[in-house]
Amino acid sequence: MSYEAVIGLEIHVQLGTRTKIFCGCSTAFGAPPNEHVCPVCSGQPGAMPVLNAEVVRYALRMALACGCDVRRDSRFARKNYFYPDLPKGYQVSQHEKPLAEGGAIEVLHEGERFSVRLNRIHLEEDAGKTTHDGPGHTSLVDLNRAGVPLIEIVTEPDLSDAAAAAETMRTVRGIVRALGISDGNMQEGSLRCDANVSLRPVGQRTLGTKTEIKNLNSFRFVQRALEFEIARQRALLDGGGQVVQETRLYDDARGVTLSMRSKEEAHDYRYFPEPDLPVLVIAEAELAAARAELPELPLARRQRFIDVLSLTDDEASELVRERELGDYFEAVVAALGDADAREIKRAANFIRTELLSRIDDARDAASARVAPQRLAELLALVRADRVSSKLAKTIFAKMWDNRRSAEEIARAEDLFVEQDSAAVVAEVERVLAASPEEVAQYRSGKTKIIGYFVGQVMKATRGKAPPQLVNQLLREKLAGDD
Amino acid sequence: MAVRDEIGAALAALASGEAVLGDALDGCAEQIEARAADLGVFISVDLDGARARAAELIERDATRLADALPLCGVPVAVKDNMTLPGLPTTCGSRMLEGWQPPYEATIVERLRAAGALVVGKTNMDEFAMGSSNENSAYGPCKNPWDPERVPGGSSGGSAAAVAARMALGALGSDTGGSIRQPAAFCGVVGLKPTYGRISRYGLVAFASSLDQPGPLARDVKSCARLYAVVGGHDRRDSTSLTHPLGDVVAAASAGEGAIDGLRVGVLSQSPVQVAPEVASGVTRATRALAEMGAELHEITLPHAEHALATYYLICTAEASSNLARYDGVRYGHRAAQANDLGALYRQSRAAFGDEVKRRILLGTFALSAGYHDDYYLRAQKVRTLIRRDFEKCFSQCDVLLLPTTPTLPFRRGEKTADPVAMYQADAFTVPASLAGLPALSMPCAVAPAAPEQGRAAPLPVGLQLIAPALEEARLFSVAGALEAALDVDVDIDIAAGGDA
User: Fold this and answer.
1) Domain ranges of chain B
2) Is residue A69 located within the same domain as residue A198?
3) Is B371 helix (H, G, I), strand (E, B) or coil?
4) Chain mean position to CA A478
5) Which pLDDT value is given to residue B63?
6) What radius of gyration do chain A's Cα atoms show?
7) How wide is the angle at C-alpha B401 spanned by C-alphas B399 and B403, nearest 5°?
8) φ and ψ at B441, to 5 degrees?
């Protein structure tokens, strides 16, 4: 039988606020264990939570960016379960009245645009971290992460394949980075997801029995774990078996998902409203302020780059990958003034090749050694035919190294285009005279060899000869009889 | 009739130079050294700390400070579920034996900043769960009026400390009556303020939506003085109210004028049987109010009969969550022999006493999938109905007057075998807790010794006043006038008391 997969994601995003959700401790990653703890986040008896207002602002940005309905009176709830890295024995989360409901995430995958509807976005606190490699078979608990703010984004089961699910996660990363609310780093755990997946015969409306794969912490794992799980369920169903509702873990080393706990062993979280926190009331003014702060989202920006700036799909996709990169590009275009499509494309390509090859992370564009204004000056020299495209790359490299302007470098190193056409004519004639064999070949019909002559002339002029003029002169001379 | 104001008198003596700072402490220290251990009043005593603090204040010019610090040199006792660095906070439990809190409760901080001298941490029912102080892992606290009897609970130690003159005031906490019932049993004044009036930051949680710290003292005005210091908004407690307290100290001595035209509600029908001594004490107070010009209104709280069941579902549900943190991982008792996580949890939690275990189990059940709606959720609905009952009452009257407890202080061991009988001791206090309303208990009579009825010593009778939310000042003014009118003699001869 042919089946289709039905996938829903529960995405956890750590918000990049300076301090934790209910206390003043730092959220910085990578500190020595239990450095960022206080009576509140370590669950000392009698300590009480105070909600960090910045956390709410960040979460509102995400909710509005996804077009959710923001609840004006949301509530925190306690999710009760036991684990050593959960200091209070409960996680403060939201249950019956989440911050936001509805909305959708727009995803572009393999050239197709689709939307993944959201069920809800709610606020909660992160737990600490347990490692099981302490001395003498002990486990160690680090509470630095306990109380770091999270939003949980729960999607509707709108996805049907593993690659699209992974792309959805990439899209979420792009959105949270564009919003400036998280670095969305799956490696460091600031973006994580659980995936629910079930199969049903194509055409059937009711959902099959699902499994939940917990704690997927890279885009690749999201895809691989789902691919494996879909294949596993298909094999089960094809063999006449049934899928058991359970929670599974992905074992990357073996590339398989493994049963973690069955439905019977599932936690009963015994949710109830958190009595230590009042109702979270969102005022109209707060909503309006959050709305006013919303930046353009990556997909909208991509479309604008295509529609308004005439970039190709690939160029636009790459430039919107990180907000900082897109900002860099737009700053160059703005500084160029009235740039035409060709010049904008030149700027785009320059950034994609020259800039990106020099930074490890596209977000570093914001602090690139060559500022957008400086790059625009260089491209203006190209536009004015004062510097060749090829030499522009050389100049850019030198700008990167010594931070001087394009003009200064070109002057100091004599890299301007040769404006004296007589000098170019002389050089062309010299090259032709020195290569009688090649001239003969050209004239016998091997016209492709013209590239050789161009190269020789450019080499002799150290790239300064205007390529168009060189080409034109060569053709004229070679067409002649002498 | 002079207004009773023991703390005010101590401050005045200090300011006038009639007394030196430390005199009041010496008096309390004498009582503590003589009787505290026998009566089981404290879990930890810190007279050295109190003396050191007194010396500090003297150095800063005590006479001048007496005007500036509202509790300058006043010896106070603090219930052992409030954090105070330097002393353990045990909550009356083996689970927290020796736990040194790393931070200070807001209320303790405010007390000390006001010049109060903390003499020790008082005995209590384990995690504030109990009505007799018999559930303490450190032995029971005894009633100073009759050591065979209970001082009430859970703030039994705080009430006993004040009654036995081991402190001029004390802090207790009230979840379903834990300040008011021991105040009544020990013949002192105790206030449970409006929920949110006094910060819970540093109060170890039992049932967070009900817990409320409050003061105890031997007279109404002294109680108001303590409340004025510890009450008020605290940004570290998100449920803390921002409304100003008003001049509650002045209200306590407003006099009879506060009663003229006051509409006093009395219950037309009691939800439980009331002992005759209690009933006659309350009747006496009602008459006194009427004589001072109060209008009496018969009121009903139709849903009060469900208050106990509602209370014990909500408080146990919240407790099951609040006490989950005592898992042996970070602090408190940790089983030495456990070699895996399950064993660590199971064995460490054996340090809880029976009543605590009972409530954790009840609360876990009430919140469980499949039962949550029938128990927890239904209890929340009844809680709302009880709140509305009160709202309706307060559309007709200004305060309610009812007994604090159905009985006189009972004997130790009398109710320990029957938890439900014990829970009924809270029948009159629980409704105001559920509604979050301010309620004050004060002595209204003393039942004389009656050997033929098995009563070896005289015993105090308490009455309870309940006001609309935020109306603590009204409670103090009514209580102050009543105190003067009733003139109950609550002085007990402690030196002789224990041997009766």
Assistant:
1) 6-304+381-497
2) yes
3) coil
4) 52
5) 64
6) 30
7) 150
8) -110, 140
**Predicted confidence band at B496 (pLDDT cuts at 50, 70, 90)?**
very low
Mutate to test the interface with B, among A22, A41, A48 (most CBs of B within 10 A): A48
Q: State how far the Cα of B289 lies from the Cα of B279, in Å rounded to an integer.
A: 15
- Which candidate, B47, B37, B48, places its Cα nearest to that of B77? B47
What does the block give as tokens for A183? 């670095």
State which amino acid sits at residue A216: L
For B283, the enclosing helix (H) or strand (E) is helix B276-291
Do A396 and A428 share a domain, yes or no?
Answer: no
Separation in Å, CA A416 to CA A336, A458, A465:
19, 13, 9
- Give catalytic residues of B, as residue numbers: 79, 154, 178
- Domain shared by A375 and A466, yes or no: no
Tens-digit pLDDT profile for residues B60-85: 876 677 778 999 999 999 999 999 99
Owning domain of residue A23: 3-289
Residues A266, A375 share a domain:
no
pLDDT at B188: 98
Using CB atoms, which residue from B96, B235, B345 is nearest to A45? B96
What total of structural domains would you count in chain A? 3
Residue B133 contacts residue B157 (beta carbons within 8 Å):
yes
Enumerate the β-bridge partners of residue A142: A129
Which segments of chain A have a pLDDT < 50?
Answer: none
Query: Which residue, chain included where needed, has tokens 């790459």?
Result: A318
Note whether B103 contacts A49, CB cutoff 8 Å: no
CA closest to A140 among chain B residues: B329
Give the list of residues 6+ apart from residue B420 with CB closer than 8 angstroms, or none: none
CATH number of the domain at A467, please: 1.10.10.410
Instruction: For domain B6-304+381-497, give the CATH superfamily.
Output: Amidase signature (AS) domain (3.90.1300.10)
Regarding whether A311 and A250 lie in a shared domain, the answer is no
Whether residues A83 and A203 fall in one domain: yes
A87 sits in the region (left: phi over 0; alpha: psi -120 to 50; else beta) called alpha
Residues A324, A377 within the same domain: yes
- Dump pLDDT digits (tens) for B22-33: 999 999 999 999
Task: Give phi and psi for B39, each to the nearest 5.
Answer: -85, -10
Looking at the structure, do residues A281 and A365 belong to the same domain, yes or no? Answer: no
List, for residues B438-489, the tens digit of each pLDDT value: 999 999 999 999 999 999 999 999 999 999 999 999 999 999 999 999 999 9
Residues of chain B contacting A141 with CB distance shorter than 8 Å = 329-330
Instruction: Return all residues near B78 (Cβ < 8 A) that are at least 6 apart.
Output: B84, B108, B111, B118, B120, B121, B122, B158, B170, B171
